[in-house]
Amino acid sequence: MILRSTYSDTSGLQYRLRAASALLGITDNTTKKYVDESGIRVRRANEDDAKAVAVRLFDPDTLFKLAQWRRAKHYIKTPLKGPYVVAVHIVKGGTGKTTTAAEIALHLQLAGMKVLAIDLDVQSNLTQYMGYEADLELKDAEAFNLTSEAVVGKTFAHVVCPYVGRGTTDSVGELIKKPFGEHGPHLIPSDANLGDMEYAVSASKGARELLLRKLLAEAAQGKIPGFDISKYDVIVMDCPPNVSMTSTMALASADIIVAPVRLDAFGVKGLGRLVGEINLLEESYGHNVHPELVILATHFAPQLSRIQRMHQALQAYQKNLAPVSISVSEDFPKSLEHYIPLSLQKPLSQASREYKEFTDYLIKRLVLIEEQRAKA
Length: 376
Fold this sequence. Notes:
Elements: H1 17-24, H2 28-38, E1 43-44, E2 56-57, H3 60-72, E3 84-88, H4 97-110, E4 115-119, H5 125-129, H6 138-141, H7 157-164, H8 172-175, E5 186-188, H9 195-202, H10 211-220, E6 234-238, H11 245-253, E7 256-262, H12 265-285, E8 292-298, H13 305-313, H14 331-337, H15 342-345, H16 350-375
Parallel strand pairs: 3-6, 3-7, 4-5, 4-6, 7-8
Antiparallel strand pairs: 1-2
């Protein structure tokens, strides 16, 4: 019996050429060209079944390797002086926030970037999307055919709490999960113990809102023993869907804030609260805190008049509105049941295509931020 290192079973994730090309965002011919040039081995279907047609079968690890090779060859333009921080936040539940964080992390990695996703929500939905069950205990792992790697164990609180107390930060090697292997997006998971971080920060002194910003800046410079994030290009943070010290710190540390707005009255109202929180941070800390807001409309259904009205209401934020919306789909709740991001389950789906387009837009925004900073 083979034990798995995540709660999800990714062994069935195999893609033919068309699906692999869709995930990489290139043509079939280009994919074949890259395989030949890179020397990266791609399995053939007839390796396991002599009667099968010898078509290429890509797995996620192969795709991530191809993506990194492609970037190293400068075949895709990405920011080069990270890590940049993308915080996914809206003061409203049920908007697709966690789905958006998972899909962004995945598609950034498929663009060749090195991504660390951090689950900052005690509900642990991003942790589940990435293949882990927050309630799983070590003593029960083997009963589910799982190794100790499938157990969450530690959360971001194990970094922040010692930092607040100026103690020794726990080893990042014990903290970070690799749900799709070394070449896929990495994850700092969450469980109920993450709440310790909120209490520790709330009891601290000084500019608490800037604590996470300072921590990440020092970690990117290798100044925090055991927590060096300099190898990552982007940090994607899934924030709790409420106003809290954790979410405020995440906003203050972000280069880009992605706000998934469900197209209903409550979603638009939640956006207003988020904008108010960003404005307050900027007023308090001036040019030191100036994240760029990107609004992503979700649950879009153009045939419904109320959806059209809500989309019209977002025009008040036109300069911040992303040029792509995420359509309503029953595939999203189903994907969570399998502990695997939707794009890896259905790479040819409309949802995967839309999140790929949105991530491409985000990459352009990050490149522009880098260019503007170079000129400053």
